Amino acid sequence: MDINNSVALVTGANRGLGRAFAQRLLDRGARKVYATARRPESVDLPGVEVLALDVTDPASVRAAAAAAPDVSLLVNNAGIQTGTDLVTGSLDAIRLELETNMLGPLGLIRELAPVLARNGGGAIVNVLSAMSWFGTSGGHAYHLSKGAAWAMTNSVRLELAEQGTIVTGVHLGLADTDMAAGWPVDKIAPSDLADAALDGVEAGAAEVLADQWSRDIKSRLSLSPEEFNAAMDRALATLTTA
């Protein structure tokens, strides 16, 4: 798929990674970019078409999809992290992370899959995380939601292959956004992450490992659970003492 002349819809486009995706799409020649946010007035990027979208609200998802009948590229970027664990944390917070990080993107895919098919197949980018593969204290609900989103990405890729839709899962460690502001470590620039993802779409890639952190963790998945957890404990200790 060629990003040039594409029509994209980006969720969570008012800041961080979503805003960077919208900007880089414009820079790379997208014909139109629908920039969506729960509060559309918070989108400040010139040149985009702003839509209201709350990915946790099915009616809002349907309305946004109906307003974008020419979409050829969906970027599922919107996400949250509540700092919740699974056994002792709030079930409402866990449900909210699942609704936002997995079920919301799936709802958009379900609504826009026929649109993408009519427009030649197109592509979907799901922004995932290295935490698709591991959890840590205060982040187990996020791990659950991103792990579920990874599985969803792999499944819809198979389901949409026949209609010619590319589905690219993008994993990263930390990006230089508000969500990661408290971590004094190296972070990928949002524009670099967006470019890596869009390069992956143009190459027809099923998966993009956008930084060294995600590549290192993916390489450990063949370890036993005990070995993997020990390796992650060492890696996280290095991060927190950096």
Automatic annotation (TrEMBL):
Stored Pfam families: adh_short
Superkingdom per UniProt: Bacteria
Keywords: Oxidoreductase
InterPro entries registered for this protein in UniProt: NAD(P)-bd_dom_sf (IPR036291), SDR_fam (IPR002347)
UniProt key word Oxidoreductase: yes
Family membership: Belongs to the short-chain dehydrogenases/reductases (SDR) family.
Protein name: Short-subunit dehydrogenase
